[in-house]
Predict the 3D structure of the following.
Amino acid sequence: MDKGSKIDEIIEERANGDRIITRARYPHVFREGLDRSVVEEISEIKGEPEWMRRFRLKALEIFNSKPMPNWGPPLDIDFNRIRYYVLPDEVKARRWEDLPEEIRETYEKLGIPEIERKYLSGSVAQLDSEGVYANIKRQLEEKGVIFLDSDSALKKYPDLFKEYFFRIVPVMDSKFSALNGAVWSGGSFIYVPENVRVDLPLMTYFRMNMMQEGQFEHTIIIAEKGSYVSYIEGCTAPIYNVTSLHSAVVEVYVKENAHVKFTTVQNWSRDILNLSTERARVERMGRMEWVSGSLGSRVTMLYPSSYLVGEGATASHLSISLASDHTWKDNGSKVIHFAPNTSSKIISKSISLKGGTTVFRGLVRIPKGSFNSVSHVQCDALILDESSRNFTFPHNEVYEESATVTHEASAGRIGEEQLFYIMSRGLTEDEARSMIVLGFLDDVMKEIPLEFSLELNRLIKLKISELGGTG
Amino acid sequence: MSLRLELVDVHAEIEGKEILKGVSLTVEQGRFHALMGPNGSGKTTLSRVIMGDRRYKITKGSILLDGEDITNLPAHERARKGLFLTFQNPVELPGVKLFTLIRSSYLVHHPDDKRSFQEFITYVQSKARLLGMDTSLLSRGVNEGFSGGERKKSEILQMSLIKPRIAIIDEIDSGLDVDALEAVAKSLKDTIYTEPKMGVLLITHYQRILKYLAPDTVHVMMDGRIIKSGDYSLALKIEERGYEWIREAR
């Protein structure tokens, strides 16, 4: 109830992107451009097994052979102007105090150690291409829970890693999944054994510090039968006004009766193109929840997918996207009901202002034989001024007669009567607008962890105050 | 100091159509005015123009508050100076909890209030109960799925918490059955006669609510003008004979 008033106490002028620049050592900063030698050098520095080196080179061939997507937002990427590997420091710390001071300082400023102490079971911090910090509570480690940066996981648990690497997302899925296959570095690896519940969330904080950088994290989550884990990723970067690229692959394996909640709050700076692939495979009676707050970046293309492969599996996809200042948020969800009695819920809320474009693309497919499967899709858009836009492309393919798919969509503006009503109670026009926008987001906002919803609240208020008296 | 709201020859239009054609009226804090008139006479427009609905354009005349010209002030500044409007059909604010609106607007008007957050919740709940209002409405979206009576009660609750110095109360009696009307009138009375007394401009189509409230002055509005003012007996006469006799008598 008090979220709104608490925010007002936090006053800090920070929108998409900040001014915190880490003066790390940077023993390796690759030249711009991508070819076989770049890929081989990454593998060499990491000291990887031979199969991984060959895998990367194969992926590079696929990347080169695939055309750019011919749909969606304009993507002005010059792949020769990106640095594909940026190593800030050769450090893998388990305690914050073991990080080099200039790196630790950045995370302190961002408040990550404090969040970890208060709210988390463990956290990983990735700076540029590598995880520099990973920690998990001892009692979870003793129960067999693994939480590491992906490179360390490949070293420590090579067989387990190989079993799940690029399985639910095939490397040839798209040009960008192939790119990730060729130059992946970092990401998180989570393994939760049978019937183990990780009560507090695990979090990874991704930070891009260098200009013209590419960050290609590869995250894998495996939740064995009857287990539970909630994972949060936060993403930020300083502003440079030179294009950088974040292109991740996330693979989530939800086994029988397991439950995974995956939350992303990305507030990338306006220099960053965020083009990621996220997919979950959900087995019998398993439950997958995607929650995403997409605030920053210049262009985001992100369509988390759930493949419901076992009877009774469920998926829920909640997303908030905010496009301002001529940015483009191309978000959506994809659910394929491969098994009977599966259900899914997709709720998307998007806000566009100051020339921003929001797009929702939804795909729900229920093949014949997936008896009694149910899906509900709701996408609501709020457009705050004349220069901003929203497009909605829902797509439902239902081949099973006993299945039910419902769909609701709305696109609207803030009503003058609503503003007048709130202003007549003594609140300014900006306050009235913020209140209406936060109300619009309310049902998704409560799914977002408190620390992040505060950030989200603050950002929305800031954006609206920048909007001034227009609209 | 009691507040004084003064309208001087106010003309107002919307979408090029003139609705108010020269309204002059004074409402002082502590005085209770009723404004009556047939449908379409401009009563609701007057209430919105006083509060600062910017969809209406004031083409002539001025609105003064203690002598200060507020004709061009935005609504929130008028509210902060002590004006309040209860809406005839308050709009829905999807997802905005009634409590959130109450809390935010209360803090604007009472920045020095010392109550803790928890004490404030208890305070609001007790006020709501006095109005016979279901307290679960506080955690619902403002007016979202509220019945007519619940909307009216929510308006009175907000007014009683903010404690404005002059309130414009627009057709609080419309769409209520006899029992609900009596309950609303009673809580309205409690609110406006609690010291320090408010100034009230109560807009109504019928005189039935006035039975409970006994106004000091009754004005009759027709065709965008106030054409007659008098004491409570004027309201009774309207009940008996309708509005047409006033027009004919002029």
The radius of gyration of chain B is 18 Å.
